[in-house]
Design brief:
Strand order of the largest sheet of chain A: 1-2-3-5-4
Order of helices and strands of chain A: HEEEHEEEHEH
Structural class of chain B: mainly beta
Number of helices of chain B: 4
Helix content of chain A: 10-25%
Strand content of chain A: 25-35%
Shape of chain A: globular
Distance between the termini of chain B: 47 Å
Largest sheet of chain A: 5 strands, mixed, barrel
Structural class of chain A: alpha+beta
Strand content of chain B: 25-35%
Strand order of the largest sheet of chain B: 2-4-5-6-7-8-11-12-13
Oligomer: heterodimer
Largest interface: A-B, 54 and 65 residues
Distance between the termini of chain A: 49 Å
Order of helices and strands of chain B: EEEHHHEEEEEEEEEEH
Chain lengths: 180, 244
Amino acid sequence: MTFAAAFLGWIQPAMAHHSFAALLTEDGGDAIAIYDGTVEIYRLINPHSALIVNVVNDDGEVEDWLIELTGSAALFREGWTRETVSAGDKVAIAILRSSTPRRGRLRALLVHGSGGEDSRLLVAYGIRGNTPIMRRLQERLPLCGDIDGSRDRSQCFAADAQALQALEAEFPGKMGYVMP
Amino acid sequence: MRVLVYLAVAVGMVGHVAVEAQAPTTQTAGFEVDFSGIYVGSRNPRVTEPDVYPFTAEGQREHNAYDPFVQNSSQLDDCAEERVPAVLWSGNVSNMQVVQEGTTIELRYEQGGAVRTIHLDGAAPAADQSHTGLGYSVGRWEGEALTIETTHLTGGALFKPRGYPLSRQTRITERYTRDADDHLHMELLVDDPVNYTESLTFEREWIWSPDEQVLPYDCVSLGSRDSEPDIDELRRIFNQLEPR
């Protein structure tokens, strides 16, 4: 019996549950969209956790979007709980847009603080790991919650009004601080 | 030549209790070795795959025509039946429990809640044995190694998003050994005369992790990826779930 040799390559894509048909920009990059909205439903489920967010689209109209996150099996282990996000949270979301309408994969979620609480910035796909954006945020913001950053996946940053203002000044544009 | 391919896999966990870990012993009545317990894909598991896939003409045609957005069943249904060997590559959800009882071994995967039964009594598959995603598996001990042969598979693809086809004639041979550091090593051979002119070999490791758990999977489909989500239907489904 003969065996083929092995090659050096990154096998992570081979392990993915399925392919995410991302909408691409003209130069082939992921199309990142940013919206303001309100969380309607948050569920930790497999194989992908989900948010339904009532977003304000570019025309000022409210649309319901399905935002996919990592599955609950992995998020539980990263420290996410059912209280990490709540229905009614006012948020700004940065998503990787799907090629089909009103579906995206969560890149970052800014949960606006209420009642004097700090805002929380949760980062995920496209940012997690030892990436320039993650390092940028780590240098500027304290961590929040119980997310286990050692897993190099998601992370939670606390951001008071002053810190957010400073970030927006340094990285212009809507949620410019989580953009490539 | 083999070169190691590394995959980052989460190790350790928090969360609710699902399945209690079982401490392994070196010997169990009826078994050559006791592999019982819970295993987690090592943080840097060694996973190898061929550098060149020796396609038959049919395999090459299938490979060239493969469209992961159409032929990957998970694109249409998140909760599509798990298949061998794809379930063995699972990365983020890599926990696996080995249960040895009587003349069978059960391999319980967190991914998809898949459960494989390995028949150790030499019973051959029935003449009308159906083909399924997990197939029909028989096992045998060779010293301290467990060898499992699986047939009656539905085929599909070696990796869900990639076009390396598998036919219903595929035979999968897994050989498991556990070292002194409690690493469970798997060597996996794929024999599929329809698509490949030679056997393919893959490797992967898990680590015995008595403090870990195999969580219930509780799959919820978010619908086909090739169409706009039905938000109203998803809202109905989510509202029926206990908040979690």
